[in-house]
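Moderator note: this is an archived Q&A kept for reference. The question asked for a predicted structure of one protein chain; the sequence and the answer are reproduced below.
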Amino acid sequence: MTTGPRAADRRFAVGLLLITATGAALRVLHLITKLGDPLSISDALYYSIQAGRNSEGDWFREVLTNEPGAEHAPLTSLYLTPWSMGSGSGVTMQRVGITLVGIAVVAVIGLLGRRLAGERVGLVAAGIAAVYPNLWSNDVLVMSESLACLVVSLTLLAAVWADQSPTARRAAVIGVLVGLAVLTRSELLLLGPGLAAILLWRTRRFAAPLVVVAVAVAVVAPWSIYNLARFERPVLLSTNDGTTLRGANCDLTYNDDVGGWDTRCLGPPDDGDVDASVRSARWRSEGLTYIGDHLGRLPVVVAARMGRTLDLYGLDSTIDNDVREEKARPVVVAGVVCWWLLAVGAIGGWRGLRRTPARWFLAVPVAGVLVTTVLFYGAHRIRAPGEPAIVVLAAAGIVDLLDRRAGRSRCETRPA
């Protein structure tokens, strides 16, 4: 019988392939159920229309006008652009493109788990990712969640890899992936300083952290420079910060649907020819003014935001929001239950990995989700970039629990 590292590598590769194939089958079945369905009135419309306009050479314009636009970070629309080309393309092909991203997430989470804590954790993590509703339910939506999960998973994989030998080349790989993450979701900007700080702690040298930050800035810079030449006000990543701040800070989200986000907070639409950066600046100012005028209510609102993101408060509202974004209600409810189970497992996994310093890299996207929740609002979409870390930690917790039970069992059956 063949043993050794090569045999172990083959066993892991075969196991990961089978698990990924299972996850792919589930996602393809889910895709089939969505074929022909129109997009909901949500960010999916933006990404789909923007990708379609890009494919026709009309790059990054406002969806309803011909004004310059940067409502969201560009990578999702750029990724969907090739899927939007040709007479047979459209929403269906865009859904196919996102589904492939979701399948890749399963494999990368498995590789991350293995790199962090060994083969069994890797396979368990991939198995969870293959069937976890909060991952696969995103994989036919024409939105950024699946791509964000993929880029975050790759970034964490690179960080754990670099931790074993923090060379400049490995730090540069992290920097590239951090830059791509920022271009996927603006709030993932928090990955850069978080990962750099852990590398500094681990290496006691500034070289690797500085490379991470410098390369990430270099990756994002072309988009920022492009925007600086198009808008009246500076736009480094997107104009969505104003939209988000205003939509999360008004009477509706402070007293009615507490801790959420509501498009009615934005007020009546303005003239179509208003520069997007000017509109964003106005909404940002209005949102910050509202916060300043209601500081006494803010602790309650922040607590509600945290509760919504952690599925501990406002479940009816959070589930309704997901349903409006094309998710089936039973799938969303199953995702809530699975989240509760995985969150408990992740706590156990964190404790089980206490002798693995690289576990701190997994804390970065989770901390980023919490910061984003506090600053903006609570929702499953906000939590999405932290899901890969939770899956891996839960897998580590499951393996640790099984090992401890096996150890107790052997002790109990050992003869006196």
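Archived answer notes: The chain has a mean pLDDT of 93.
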